[in-house]
Amino acid sequence: MTVAAVVLLAVAGVAGAVAWYAVEHRRPGASTAVWLAAAAVPVVLAGTATLFGLRGSPAGEGLLNVARAAAVVAAVTGGSLVATALLRVADRGTGVTSDDDTTGDASEAVSDPRTLRGGTSIGALERIAVAVTLLAGWPEGLALVLGVKGLGRYPELRRPAAAERFIIGTLASVLWAVAAFGVVVAVQT
Most exposed of 36, 45, 72, 85 (fewest Cβ within 10 Å)? Predict the structure, then answer.
């Protein structure tokens, strides 16, 4: 069961990358339902990996190292899908979508990447930092990662949509990275 858990975690990382690439290239045309379906793929795989990891015997050091690497990959790739899907959900019911903005300001659409430029890259770096911090056994580092991100984004957070995007994106990103790390914990115990 432990080997299956690590394989599923690795597949979650690869599937997250493939799904993110496929949906991201359709970003303007991709509906919220498409983003949610794409995000469900790594979520289900990582959840199943966790269950398998909990049922198996503890992983050896070699397999544990593979699980650690797979967790970082899954954290980065799946996190992009999860965060974007949740940002799209945040825009539902508001009557505003990222396609509605014609001014380039993107001050109303939470899911519009222009609301906080560079968010995809910053989110990927954030998930790497969170995963590596946890893998290093230094959970206090999460405060440092989030503090640096908050300070870096502080001037932009005066706009309501930017603040909402920051909070939703950060929480989704961090929680997903922690969940990917959770699979490692499951296979090592």
Answer: 36
